[in-house]
Structure formats: C-alpha cells, structure tokens
Design a protein that fits this description.
Layout (H helix, E strand, L loop, with lengths): L1 E5 L3 H12 L3 E5 L3 H8 L10 H10 L3 E4 L2 H5 L4 E4 L15 H13 L4 E5 L7 H12 L5 E5 L9 H6 L4 E4 L3 H10 L10 E4 L1 H32 L3 H9 L20 H14 L5 H24 L8 E5 L15 H10 L3 E5 L4 H4 L7 E2 L3 H5 L4 E4 L11 H7 L4 E4 L6 H6 L3 E3 L7
Parallel strand pairs: 1-2, 1-4, 2-3, 4-5, 5-6, 7-8, 9-10, 9-12, 10-11, 12-13, 13-14
C-alpha cells in the first residue's frame, strides 16, 4: 500500500516508520523544511528508543521518505493519514483543530483517485464529519472516505505499542475504506491484534475516554496516597491489593506527583469541553483535571516540609525533568510547577535529566543544569526524585551522603525503601507510605 503521512511529529513519524517496516511505501510530509532536512540526514526530532534505527533501515531500503510536497505525496496514495498536532486552544481549553482542517483542505486539492483520509490525530467527536464536509465542499468530484483511526502509543514504548497493540480502532461505515484499513494493518494479523470497527464518532470518543479513564486511575491512587500518609498505611501495598482484582488491574496505580505529557492533560480538558458543549457534563473528569493540577503544586510543599520550611537560600537538586522516562517530552511535566514553586519559595534549583535538559531550558531558565546526578547533588540541601529514569534506581548513597550539604531525599516516585535510606543515614520522604 502507498501511504501519505501528514505530519512528522511524534505520532506521524513513529506510525510512518512502523508502516514502512510492515512493507508499505510511506511518505512523511511536514511543512517544517528544517525538520524534513534533518530527517533526510537521519536526525530524529524527538527522543524515542529505537526510532532512529527504524527510520534509517526503512529509508535505506526505499520504503520511507520525507517531503514538504503534500501534492506529490497524496497523488497515487491509497491512504492519507492526518497526524498533526491538536493542542489545547488558548483561552478555552478546546482542542485546536486548525492544523487538522488545514491538512484536510490541502489533501482535498491533491486527491486523484479513491483515497482514504485517516484521522490519526486525537480529535473531538464530530471532527471527522467536519473533515468530510471540508473536502466535499472543496472537491465535489473527489472519490474519498474519511476514517477515524486513533493512536494508543506510549512515549518511550511507542514502537512496541504500534507493532503489538492491544487493539486497532477503525471508525468507518464505508466498506471500501474498511478494506483499505484492513490491508494496511494486515501485517499485524499474526500478532492476533483485534481490529475493532465502529462508527466514526464512536472511534473518536474511544480515544478520549481511554485517556480520561487512565488519568482517573492515576489521580485516584494519588488521593489514596494522601490518605495513606495520614492514617499510617502503605499506598504501594494498597495499589497491589486492589490491582490484583482483575476488574481493576495493576497498571496506572503508581502514586506520584501527578500526570503530565502530551496527551492526558490536553485530552481530559478537551473531553470536558466536549461534554459541556453537548450538555453532558463529565463531573468525574472535571475533578480529575482539577485535582491533578493541585497535586503538582503541592509537591513543592512536600519538599519544603522535609527541610523544615526553611527554603530561602536552600539548594534543591532535582533528578528527572521529563514527564516520564525514555522521552525528552517536557509538555505539562510535573517538574515545571515543582521547580517554579521552589523558586517562588526562595530556593536555588539544580537539575539533571538524561535526555530532557535541552527541552527544559527554555521552560525553566533559572535552573543550574548539571552533567550527571552526582554533580547535581553536590552541596544540595535536598535531593528530589521526580522522574523514574533507570539511571536513578541504583544511586550510590554513600557517595551522595559525602557530597550533599544535608542528607535529605524526597522520592516522588517511591523508587527506594525507607529502611534502606535509614541505613545510609538519610531523612527520607516518599509518597503515600508510612514511616517515610
């Protein structure tokens, strides 16, 4: 199959490279000429394990190419995937569909034969209807179908998620479009990946509902963690105890500083706005978003409490800046409100992240960025673990004890055990665990 991937950001690049690896011929299109030039040189615009090698292999074998020319990419394509950004719109929180609709207009002008226009971007319910209207208005003669095919990729594990999906959701009532989509995803049949075919609006809602539910699980266990601290319980044991129930499941029950990233914050907000527009308010999701915002700011108070409230002039070392490990994504990362609040309290902040510091610098300019975890911790009054990178899971606390001004560790990811830290003579604070 011949595929045009409109947008070469996270979703478009990963999806395009994986489709090419299946044997399809893929052209990734982007309006950013510098990005396309970099991709042609084999330079990745994002950090994703294994992506550089995947792109290089398929580009070298002629199945994957990069272009700024949408018209030539669409000409002869069986499917045109729209994988452009849908950020929160300034001022009201609705998903900004400017790029989606612009892509629809450009695709319309370039259509030559029957083409499936596939919305891969995360979009509110009804967006596919509007895309169809735009294309039909621009090209009444065109032969096309609009399909919703939401992505379910986790940053840091996106290639595996694409090649071993829990499910593939295809929203269409058009039999020709369904046949094209089944052929595109046919290489996954051996993995027994279920293809769920629904109405287009249903597919659009599935994506938002999935993200909102996962965000709810995270927020729920974070509130249970707060209660566990008050009553002297251990939230990790609570999470395991409820996670062993098959109706609940163990995933997304890790207490921490709140969710961030490119999806959960904007998608929960967009879903809330959709509910309001259709007079079906989503009170649970509204509460989830509000509680999560409050939690990120509250983490700085946890650090202040560990230092006895004496923050002015204190040096705080922050390990981990990205919203999760194995990505350089800083969007809505918990480290941002944490560090901002620490600065407001009068603290000096030093930081280290294995891959995210260049992305963090424009967002957090008043931070001293360090070469490694130990340089970061030198002469610090407190060490704060914010992102659970593997590099931070076996720190040498004997060395840390020698170089830090005060032996205080605030572990916002519950990487370590209180008894272990006590043996090293550290004051240790974690999330939702008694005795720490």
């Amino acid at each position: 199959m011949r595929i045009a991937m409109i947008g070469s950001g996270y979703v478009g690049l990963v999806s395009g490279a994986c489709f090419a690896d299946f044997g399809h011929h893929v052209v990734c299109v982007d309006t950013d000429r510098d990005k396309i030039a970099s991709l042609r040189r084999g330079e990745m615009p994002i950090y994703e394990p294994g992506l550089g090698e995947l792109v290089a292999r398929n580009a070298g074998q002629g199945r994957l190419s990069f272009s700024t020319d949408l018209t030539s990419a669409i000409g002869g394509a069986d499917a045109a995937f729209v994988a452009v950004g849908t950020p929160s719109r300034r001022g009201d929180g609705h998903a900004d569909l400017t790029y989606v609709y612009a892509a629809a207009r450009e695709i319309a002008a370039a259509l030559t034969g029957f083409t499936v226009i596939v919305t891969k971007s995360t979009v509110p319910v009804g967006t596919g209807d509007e895309v169809e209207r735009i294309v039909r208005e621009a090209r009444p003669d065109a032969d096309f179908a609009v399909v919703s095919n939401p992505e379910f990729l986790r940053e840091g594990a996106a290639i595996r998620d694409f090649k071993h999906p829990d499910r593939i959701v295809v929203g269409t009532d058009d039999p020709r479009a369904r046949a094209v989509m089944e052929e595109i995803y046919r290489p996954l049949y051996l993995n027994a990946a279920p293809i769920m075919v629904t109405g287009r609006r249903t597919a659009e809602l599935i994506k938002y509902a999935a993200n909102a539910f996962l965000a709810t699980k995270i927020t729920f266990i974070n509130e249970i963690a707060d209660l566990a601290e008050k009553v002297g319980a251990d939230v990790q044991d609570v999470a395991r105890g409820i996670g062993l129930d098959n109706r609940i499941g163990a995933k997304f029950l890790h207490a921490g500083p709140g969710y961030g990233g490119s999806c959960f914050p904007k998608d929960t907000l967009a879903l809330i706005k959709t509910g309001q527009d259709f007079e079906a308010p989503l009170r649970i999701v509204e509460t989830v978003a509000a509680v999560n915002d409050q939690r990120k700011r509250a983490m700085a108070r946890k650090v202040a409490a560990a230092l006895g409230g004496q923050m002015r002039g204190a040096t705080v070392a922050v390990l981990g800046l990205t919203f999760k490990p194995n990505t350089d994504d800083m969007r809505d990362a918990p480290s941002i409100p944490l560090i901002t609040a620490l600065h407001d309290m009068g603290a000096r902040v030093r930081a280290y992240d294995p891959v995210g510091m260049e992305q963090a610098k424009p967002l957090l300019p008043n931070v001293t960025y360090c070469a490694d975890a130990y340089a970061c911790a030198e002469k610090a009054d407190a060490l704060v673990l914010v992102t659970e990178w593997e590099q931070f899971r076996a720190l040498d606390f004997r060395q840390l004890g020698e170089i830090m001004a005060r032996k205080v560790v605030v572990d916002l990811r519950n990487i370590y055990r209180a008894d272990e830290m006590a043996r090293h003579g550290f004051q240790y604070v974690s999330v939702g665990r008694s005795g720490s």
